[in-house]
Fold:
Amino acid sequence: MRQILFALLSMLSWAILAPATLAHAVLLATTPADGAMLAMPPAAVRLTFNEAVRPLVVRHVAPDGTETDLTDSIAGATELVIPLDGIGRGTHVVSWRVVSEDGHPIPGSLLFSIGEMTGAAAVPAEGDTAVRSAIWLARAAMAIALVVAVGGAAFGAMAPVPQDARRPLIGAAAVALLAAPAYLGLHGLDALGAGFAALATPAPWIAAAGTSFGPSVAMAMAAALLAVAGLWARSAAVLALVLLGVSYAASGHAGAAWPQALTRPLVAVHLIALTLWIGALIPLALSLHTDTTGLRRFSAAIPFAVILLAGSGIALATVQLGGDVAHWRAPYARILAAKLVLLAVVLALAASNRWRLTAPVLAGDAQAVRRMRRGIALELLCAVAILGLTAGWRFTPPPRALAQAAPAAASAFAHLHSDAVMANLIATPGRAGPIAMHIEIGDGDMNPLSVIGATLLLSLPERGIEGLERSASPLDGVEGVWRIPDLVLPFPGTWTVALDIRLSRFSKTTLSGTLTLK
Structure:
């Protein structure tokens, strides 16, 4: 028992002490802005996320439809810098699939034009519906099979598992051992945006193993194997139960939510409580005619599991829903609502079995046994539906992430000019706060102009801000394009801007205008 407790503490410590993150990752800003019309080609595209991400696939689609894989040339983590070399006039698309701490792929595309809009570039498809359906099926099958196999083995800690229950429990473990690697491979397909044929190649398996789902699936498979051993060895059943909880805490929206010191243990506790309850139902139902020891002990223990299940579920729902009520109508919240309805039905059935039928069954009432078995069958049916529903969360970012991903204001634009020099200022996003300022400097005809320096001065007199000065840096290899990547303008309103341009060592010019931020 001491070894089991040590393993439990070690695994929960790993869940608590793992690095914190804000997952699910969301895109905050792009440079250039989506749909932008540019006078000159950018040296790079920049994608700014709310947390570190890892690129899986990044492609550039030229106006003539030519695709170039840029995945290996990307730098950065929170801000991905995607270099673009030698691109010409027309409409371009940069598409990406990245992955963050929760293991879910995040696709997106950015469209911009240089000089003219051509419409030849096509945005790549964001995923195969058949692949996503297969992912749901594999994930649901894995979850259902694991709960049945591990929970059934854990029932053996309360009472002997009936012989006629061992075969379905071993069968459930076998299903889990098949569904888990299938889910991992399909997750890799989704991560890369590939079709089923790619399963015959190493790429999707490597991509999936590199996400948080890799170790999670490995632990789930180990839990399934331990569940089989747990039918004969109680310690193996307990380890399987703990390992299953930690495997779910290691990946997914809920386990990756902040603060992880709270959410990861909550996910583990939620899964362990659910598994103890639902997984025990098959051996419980099959033991009613021969041995009521299991029923007596199950009835005494299950209220504690329900309390843990409800408490952890309420806490996780509070974290996932967030405070923005406007996003509570999202698909994630609808799945949660359906789950709660089904859970209420399960609780009603369980309460009926616990308080109306347990005493007659213990007294040997055959009719009560038949009624309890029917009630248990309905509980199992509802539990399968609940696990199938929650498998759909794989495709639905929680409301807290949607609130972070609320569309940023479009880029703010200012055109400054004199007779001989012009400049375009593009602030992304066009709202108060952190801003990336893109500066294009040209001659009187807006042809790129080579200069030796550019400094931006900003004022917002009604807020008491005067002469905020920031130096711009040139973009390598692109004439006339300068950038201030870390500008912070704290207030909305119409800012007065002045751009000091050093034309040479001995001459400069100043262009003035206004820039409105939302």
About this structure: The longest strand covers residues 433-443. Confidence is low (pLDDT under 50) at residues 1-23. The domain at 27-125 is CATH 2.60.40.1220 (Immunoglobulin-like). The CA atoms of residues 102 and 256 lie 5 Å apart.
